Amino acid sequence: MTAPVLQVKDLKTQFFTDDGVVKAVDGVSFDLHPGETLGIVGESGCGKSVTALSILRLVQEPGRITQGQIIFKGSDIVTMPDDDVRDIRGKDIAMIFQDPLSSLNPVLQVGFQIEEAMEAHQKIPGKIALSRAVQLLKQVRIPAAETRVRDYPHQFSGGMRQRAMIAMGLANKPSILIADEPTTALDVTVQAQILELLRDLNEETRTAIILITHNMGVVAGLCKRVLVMYAGRIVEQGPVDQIFKDPQHPYTWSLLQSIPRLDADRKDRLLSIEGLPPDLIKPPPGCRFHPRCRFRIERCFHDDPALMDVGPDQDAACWVTMRRALATDGEAHA
Amino acid sequence: MATAPGVATPDEYVGATIVREQTNLWADAWRRLKRNRLALVSTILLCGLVLVALVSLFWTPYPIWRQGVASTYQTPNSHFLLGADAAGRDIVSRLMVGAQISLEVGVGTQIVVALIGITIGLIAGYFRGWLDGIFSTLINIFYGIPDLLVALLLVLLLGRGLDKIIFAIAATRWMDMARLVRGQTLALREREFVEAARASGTRPNKILSRHILPNALGPIIVQATFGIPQAILFEAFLSFLGLGVQPPTPSWGAMAADGFHALRIAPHIVLAPAIALSLTLMAFNFLGDGLRDALDPRQKR
User: Fold this and answer.
1) Distance (Å, rounded) from C-alpha A316 to C-alpha A310?
2) With contacts defined as CB-CB under 8 Å, which chain B residues touch A62?
3) Cα–Cα distance between A96 and A77 in angstroms, integer?
4) What's the whole-model pTM score?
5) Which residue ranges of chain A lie beneath pLDDT 70?
């Protein structure tokens, strides 16, 4: 495999609030390879968005990256001077956000905002910038791009706005595109179109994509590899096909069980995960998932598991793992 | 997208219908402003005032400084529509030039106020931290000092030229604007499009000028519109105290002060500038109200 384009090593991002230190991201490590599509999934508040913001050092006060390295092109983003980070933002690593309407400036024309994204990193004459903007809008399949380039955001539909955001993200041909819940605010049919667009663009431009979502289905639609986060940690990682087929962490398993299926028997109940995600100021001792885990054993209460090899390319942070849990379950029923 | 040829995609269809209805923010605001009768009448009145002020630059019925063009305390007649003052000067001519002075003071002050207030507000609101601390303290200190004291001191120190009076009034009036812009900036910097701009490597000066300031422009315009009559009134008050624009330049406040001594025998001398002043102040305030509703339609209805 080629050298990774981005390496995150033991990243910790904490928020220093009046109530205490919130350990939003607590020791996350992963590699991203050129052209790869990586999904990061988890419930709200599990630290997936903060991980993404940390990569571009966009975490705002009172949040701070307290430990770890983010290696991009041989240098560490965490310790880089501000100006150097600004050069990376939008040029090498671009980001698109959840709500495409509020991510566009309402008083500026869409085309103008795309041109601006380019001009932040290179000097280009206005005419060329305009034709590039039109070309980008065409690339994200916006019809009548030549006239649409002069429209204001409110004249675009939700799906078109997200397409325009993606066009802005691609304006400088970045090597990584981080998409933070890009489809959450959209209708289901439009969601599928946007995912298809991202998949096509990934193949056309070889831009690596980090897709952040709470939706397992969205991950399946786009990503080759997935990280499952829980309470600021990665609890399982591996190829998407394998994780969907054979999840080893009980949390991943529960997430997959909670997706409604068309082919399921009507009588089958959807599984919901009992309880709430833990308080990140005082995470539970031992495995952070143990208060909500139906397969927990005595060891889970006090011993914190690290990621362990559970299959080819697949790691899970669990003392039990589903393979053993389901085996003993089967014995119990027998 | 896989659609049959000739069939509009949902995006195309929705886009096409919206385009015809809405034009842009400013055209929209203008349409709403026109529906507000009071604001419309005020706009017309103020346009008339600007016209009079412009005309007075080239022509007035009588020279404003020449005394004795009419007899002293001349009551209104067909030659002197509003009569003459204690020195026999034509009041219509003096009112016309007074309009020019008032507008210059009002608009000039607000331009200075906007320059100071916007700069300080943007910096304090965007960078927060110690810069915000310094500017917020400065704002509170200026609020604490009586504005009349500041203005009188500055006029005494600097002199009574129009530009100096404008500066003196602006020195007592910039804090509201700074506070407003700071608040707007604090709110806007958390908006996603500002974060998106930051995420695409946009420099802070561009974020402020392209993303934050244009979105705060509505409230700034409203604030400035309300600020104009305040400044005009403040200048009239200074002139009434004898510390406004240097006589014989006719300011409405100075004209009222002159007439005040002869209130019993010739009330028309006070009435003319007083009515002109009141109408102007009212017009600006109604216009400000109208602009507020027009520029922020969510607040009302």
Assistant:
1) 6
2) none
3) 19
4) 0.79
5) 1, 264-269, 329-334
Q: Is residue B70 part of a domain?
A: no
Q: How far is A327 from chain B (nearest CA, A)?
A: 45
Task: Supply the range of the domain harboring residue B148.
Answer: 27-61+76-295
Query: Structurally, how many domains does chain B consist of?
Result: 1
Per-residue tokens: A188: 């289901």
Given an 8 Å threshold on Cβ–Cβ distance, is A94 in contact with B211?
no
* Residues of A in Cβ contact (< 8 Å) with B188: none
User: What ipTM was assigned to the predicted interfaces of this complex?
Assistant: 0.80
CATH number assigned to the domain comprising residue B118: 1.10.3720.10
| Domain-located, residue B16 | no
Report chain A residues whose CB lies below 8 A from the CB of B14. 157
Cα B205 from Cα A136, distance rounded (Å):
26
Distance CA A141, CA A151 (A): 16
Q: Is B16 on the interface with A (CB under 8 A)?
A: no
Asked if A90 and B191 come within 8 Å (Cβ–Cβ), the reply is no
Contact call for B206 and A120, based on CB within 8 A: yes
Question: Helix, strand, or coil here: A14?
Answer: strand
Q: Do B199 and A120 touch (CB under 8 A)?
A: no
Instruction: Give, as one character, the DSSP assignment of residue A184.
Output: T
User: pLDDT value at position A264?
Assistant: 66
The answer to whether the beta carbons of residues A81 and A42 sit under 8 Å apart is: no
Provide the 10 A C-beta neighbour count for residue A189: 9
List, as ranges, residues 18-57 from A with C-beta within 8 Å of B: 56
The answer to whether residue B5 is domain-embedded is no
Hey, what's the torsion of the CAs at A114, A118, A124, A130, to 10 degrees?
Answer: -20
Beta carbons of B196 and A88 less than 8 Å apart? no
Question: Residue A237 contacts by C-beta under 8 Å, 6 or more apart in sequence?
Answer: A30, A225, A226, A227, A228, A307, A314, A315, A316
- What's the rounded Cα separation, in Å, for the pair B278 and B191? 41
Amino acid A329: pLDDT: 64
* Annotated domain spans of chain A: 6-223, 233-333
CATH architecture for the domain at A6-223: 3-Layer(aba) Sandwich (3.40)
How far is C-alpha A243 from the geometric centre of its chain's CA atoms? 16
- What size, in residues, is chain A? 334
Does B149 map to a domain? yes
Helix (H, G, I), strand (E, B) or coil at B290: helix
B192 to chain A: closest CA residue: A103
A89 DSSP assignment: B
In this prediction, residues B194-217 reach a mean pLDDT of 90
Helix (H) or strand (E) holding A70, with range, is strand A63-72
> Of A265 and B199, which is predicted with more confidence?
B199
**CA A27 – CA A23 distance, rounded (Å):** 9
Residue A184 in contact with partner chain B when CB distance is under 8 A: no
Cβ–Cβ below 8 Å for B206 and A108: no
Chain B nearest-CA residue for A84: B201
Phi and psi at residue A91, in whole multiples of 5°?
A: -95, -50
Q: What is the pLDDT of residues A94-153, one digit of tens each?
A: 998 888 778 888 888 899 999 988 888 888 888 888 999 999 999 888 888 889 998 888
In angstroms, what CA-CA distances link B218 with A108, A240, B126, B297? 15, 49, 18, 11
